Amino acid sequence: MDLPDPGDTNGVAKDDAKAERKKLVKELAEQQELLYADRRHAVLMILQGMDASGKDGTVRHVLSGVNPQGVHVRSFKEPTPIEHAEDFLWRVHEAAPPKGYIGVFNRSHYEDVLVVRVHDLVPERVWRPRFRAINDFERMLTESGVVILKFFLHISKEEQVKRFERRIEDPRRHWKFSTADLRERDYWDAYQKAYADVLHECSTEWAPWHIVPADHKWYRNLVVARHMVKAMKDLDLHYPSLPAE
Question: What is the pLDDT of residues 125-172, one digit of tens each?
């Protein structure tokens, strides 16, 4: 799969993008209230990308106007011993948002076909069948009323190192920096190959991948906000009527 230029902004100016995103944030807040009142659907935002691609920033900026009580954010770390004893989707299904809510996976079940592959934690005969399991799992969620929006935040290797340098130089960002991030850069090419397979194997009719050029944070936020608002408007959400009694 050919990836777009991570620095592409599709001709959008920064000031125009910020003005549009401000409107979209307001619309998203309105749609979230409708989602909660309607209770027929849930929305699941899945964010994947290399380190420093902006997963946390996307959540912070795109969802800045919504009611936090209606949002569930989950970040999937290394499995616990209990999670290791179950199938790889067990902990993910438990975290799926209930109807009426927006769920956010900041990293997700896709780590089980990315990190485990790149670092050779399990053999190919284990991770490759997971593509099929993921597609079946996501189809089951959509058939249950969950709208899945998957975003690959596509950052360049050059922009990544600039963001690492800013984290080192700014004391307010030191907490974001880890030497492990630098070690992971050694696996850049392996991750790109693994992501290419993920985007090819798991972009389905019911849960397609959206590849978001992410070198410019303002453009990244705009693209994600556009997709979120459109998907929720397409649900044709309504406030329920009062019972006749």
Answer: 999 999 999 999 999 999 999 999 999 999 999 999 999 999 998 888
Domain ranges for the chain, please list them.
Answer: 14-234
Cβ–Cβ under 8 Å, residues 149 and 210? yes
Helix axes 55-62, 217-234, angle to 10 degrees: 60
**Which residue's structure tokens are 């900041």?**
106
CA dist., res. 245 & res. 243, Å (int): 5
Between the two ends of the chain, the Cα-to-Cα distance in Å is 57
Strands 102-106 and 42-49 turn out to be parallel
* 82-100 core/surface letters (b: 16 or more CB in 10 A; e: else): ebeeeebbebbeebbbeeb
Percent of the chain whose pLDDT exceeds 90: 89
CA distances to 97, 146, 237 from 205, rounded to whole Å, are 21, 14, 22
Tokens of 221: 């936020």
- Nearest to residue 232, comparing CAs of 18, 21, 38? 38
Question: Which pair of structure tokens corresponds to residue 82?
Answer: 């209990």
Class in CATH terms, 14-234: alpha beta
> Three-state secondary structure along 189-233?
HHHHHHHHHHHHHCCCCCCCEEEEECCCHHHHHHHHHHHHHHHHH
Q: Nearest to residue 80, comparing CAs of 94, 61, 60, 101?
A: 94
